[in-house]
């Protein structure tokens, strides 16, 4: 039987279900992620064919760059997704999953751009830019 994970936004207007194992969490400390979430972005990703979304009409996609969009709930504002234009997977915020998730942080990216109010001290690998 396939591994199933579920989750939703804060108000429940957007719900999702994934099939198959989840990738380790990548924590992104770039200024865009910090501004969107208020801290850093922590996400896993799922192949698009293994992702089902209920309430997709409640998702607003913000063009964060020339190559990607960020999806959030238009009702409660919960940050939920990141999607590269040419990718066949969708990144999903780790905190949006129902527990238990079994997720662990694998590494941190864009650490050179992290906020000045915290340190990264979990022992995971750190990259100054992307990986």
Compact overview of the structure:
This protein is 5% helix and 41% strand. It is mainly beta and 131 residues long. The protein is globular, with a radius of gyration of 14 Å.
Number of strands: 11
Largest sheet: 8 strands, mixed
Net shape: globular
Q: What's the helix-strand series?
A: EEEHEEEEEEEE
In round numbers, the mean pLDDT is: 96
User: Main sheet: which strands, in order across?
Assistant: 6-7-8-9-4-3-10-11
Entry keywords:
11 strands, 1 helix, mainly beta, globular, three-stranded antiparallel β-sheet, single chain, 131 residues
Structure, explained:
This protein has 131 residues and is mainly beta. The chain has one helix at residues 31-37, and strands at residues 4-8, 15-19, 25-28, 41-47, 51-54, 59-63, 68-73, 79-84, 89-93, 105-109, 125-126.
Map the helices and strands:
Layout: E1 4-8, E2 15-19, E3 25-28, H1 31-37, E4 41-47, E5 51-54, E6 59-63, E7 68-73, E8 79-84, E9 89-93, E10 105-109, E11 125-126
Parallel strand pairs: 3-10, 10-11
Antiparallel strand pairs: 1-2, 2-5, 3-4, 4-9, 6-7, 7-8, 8-9
